[in-house]
């Protein structure tokens, strides 16, 4: 098989896995909330249940990223186990009956789901970087994210269809998650393991990325030289030095140098406040659309509207991901695209408040803005992390740290937002989101420099200087 075909097949394998992992995403959380309310749970209890996953993930994600960085085990095994555990935990809601039953089950499985889901993002990012290198990372990650959104569309559509047909007993729509997990585990077996050290953001072979790029451009012509270089690299890695945890850590930058980087701090704070303002908006939108029954449960007519809101947002995210990828290839920087995503949130909140009594079609249309914001944010997040961390050996731990900050914002948003809805109403909750949404815009505009074209340069220089000091002026 030619190298072009081999790499294309790997890219397709990543796309398939991303599609099914997208179906495992937390888009179905809103259906879980609807089902629990229908059983007699109040909004506060639902908020606590959904927030437990977020609280657990924000604690675990940084450690999960560090584990994925340092592990000598196959990262594909981590991804398979995390997918199965996530699906099992999310499907536990099938065994909940009545307002007073199943609380311990839901709360405990949400904790498990938070732990397992924390490994999925770092695993996919690490395997992508390990298999394609830093120069091709953006292109393949854009494909992964795009197909993840498509998977979320399929999941929301199937769940909404099942929920509407089976109403009021909508719990069987969560079987979509179990099926998706099985398919994801099957797809993981098709993924390459790649270069394990490159997967943590260490440049172990200076010409690997160029060889891949040249072979893709020139077809068979450079295939033999690429294979020879890659074999030499693998032989080099098979030495005790390259399998030593100590030698790897000597190659890596300190945690403090990565975490205290101005760009890291700005990205973490920006993501925290964006998700703090954003996460609860979809829940509030779902509660506004379709209305409630007399007992407080969601009407049957609201289910397709809620599913439509998720589908519309994910569809727009897919388009934003595709457009962002094309614009990045055309030389657009990170900052204008990220700012465009941030600016959609205050406009969305204001329109929902203004249109709250205008009808469901007006409310549903605001999900286009959610899709644009989420699409650009989700695409640029791994780009920015790789720009900041490549060469440091701390790529996945920084993915975990930033995801933890984002998750903390989303968790507090769901928890406090639903409490405000219960005590003060929907408009008060949306108004709070509107005010908060200005903070990340100001932070990112003032504090974040442009990182496009700067991938690994600063930290590679730091690592070079550290190695000179460690070896008494001689590099080894």
Topology at a glance:
Blueprint: H1 3-23, H2 29-38, H3 43-70, H4 75-91, H5 103-166, H6 175-188, H7 208-218, H8 223-237, H9 245-251, H10 255-259, H11 262-288, H12 302-329, H13 334-354, H14 360-365, H15 367-389, H16 395-424, H17 426-436, H18 438-447, H19 457-470
Helix pairs in contact: 1-5, 1-6, 2-3, 3-5, 3-16, 4-5, 4-6, 5-7, 5-12, 5-15, 5-16, 7-8, 11-12, 11-13, 11-16, 11-17, 11-18, 12-15, 13-15, 13-17, 13-18, 15-16, 16-17
What does this 3D model show about the protein?
With 476 residues, the protein is mostly helical. It has helices at residues 3-23, 29-38, 43-70, 75-91, 103-166, 175-188, 208-218, 223-237, 245-251, 255-259, 262-288, 302-329, 334-354, 360-365, 367-389, 395-424, 426-436, 438-447, 457-470. The two termini are 37 Å apart.
* Oligomeric state of this protein: single chain
Q: Based on helices, strands and strand pairing, what is the structural class? A: mainly alpha
Which spans of ≥5 residues are poorly predicted at pLDDT below 50? 1-8, 206-243, 462-476
C-alpha geometry:
globular
**What share of the residues lie within helices?**
over 70%
The biggest beta sheet reads: none
Radius of gyration: 23 Å
């Amino acid at each position: 098989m030619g190298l072009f075909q081999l790499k294309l097949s790997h890219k397709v394998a990543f796309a398939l896995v991303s599609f099914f992992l997208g179906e495992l995403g937390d888009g179905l959380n809103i259906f879980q909330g609807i089902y629990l309310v229908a059983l007699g749970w109040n909004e506060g209890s639902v908020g606590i249940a959904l927030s437990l996953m977020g609280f657990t993930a924000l604690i675990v994600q940084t450690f999960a990223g560090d584990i994925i960085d340092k592990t000598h085990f196959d990262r594909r095994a981590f991804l398979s186990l995390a997918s199965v555990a996530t699906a099992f935990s999310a499907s536990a809601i099938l065994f909940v009956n009545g307002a007073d039953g199943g609380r311990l089950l839901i709360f405990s499985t949400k904790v498990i789901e938070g732990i397992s889901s924390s490994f999925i993002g770092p695993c996919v990012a690490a395997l992508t970087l390990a298999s394609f290198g830093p120069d091709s990372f953006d292109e393949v990650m854009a494909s992964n994210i795009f197909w993840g959104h498509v998977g979320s569309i399929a999941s929301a559509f199937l769940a909404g269809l099942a929920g509407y047909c089976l109403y009021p007993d909508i719990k069987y729509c969560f079987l979509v998650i179990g099926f998706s997990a099985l398919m994801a585990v099957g797809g993981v077996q098709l993924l390459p393991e790649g270069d394990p050290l490159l997967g943590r953001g260490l440049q172990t072979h200076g010409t690997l990325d160029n060889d891949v790029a040249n072979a893709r451009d020139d077809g068979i012509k450079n295939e033999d030289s690429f294979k020879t270089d890659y074999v030499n690299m693998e032989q080099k890695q098979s030495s005790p030095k390259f399998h030593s945890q100590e030698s790897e850590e000597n190659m890596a930058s300190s945690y403090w140098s990565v975490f205290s980087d101005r760009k890291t701090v700005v990205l973490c704070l920006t993501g925290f406040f964006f998700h703090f303002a954003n996460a609860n908006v979809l829940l509030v939108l779902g509660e506004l659309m379709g209305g409630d029954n007399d007992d407080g449960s969601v009407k049957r007519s609201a289910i397709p509207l809620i599913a439509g809101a998720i589908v519309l947002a994910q569809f727009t995210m897919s388009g934003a991901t595709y457009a962002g990828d094309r614009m990045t290839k055309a030389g657009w920087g990170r900052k204008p695209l990220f700012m465009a995503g941030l600016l959609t949130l205050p406009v969305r909140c204001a329109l929902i408040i203004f249109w709250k009594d205008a009808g469901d079609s007006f409310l549903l249309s605001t999900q286009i803005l959610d899709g644009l914001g989420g699409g650009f944010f989700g695409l640029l997040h791994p780009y920015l992390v790789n720009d900041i961390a490549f060469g440091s050996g701390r790529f996945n731990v920084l993915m975990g740290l930033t995801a933890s900050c984002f998750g903390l914002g989303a968790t507090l948003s769901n928890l406090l937002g639903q409490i405000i809805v219960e005590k003060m109403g929907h408009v008060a909750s949306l108004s709070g989101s509107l005010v908060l949404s200005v903070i990340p815009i100001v932070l990112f505009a003032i504090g974040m420099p442009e990182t496009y074209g700067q991938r690994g340069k600063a930290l590679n220089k730091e690592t070079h200087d550290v190695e000179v000091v460690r070896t008494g002026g001689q590099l080894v």
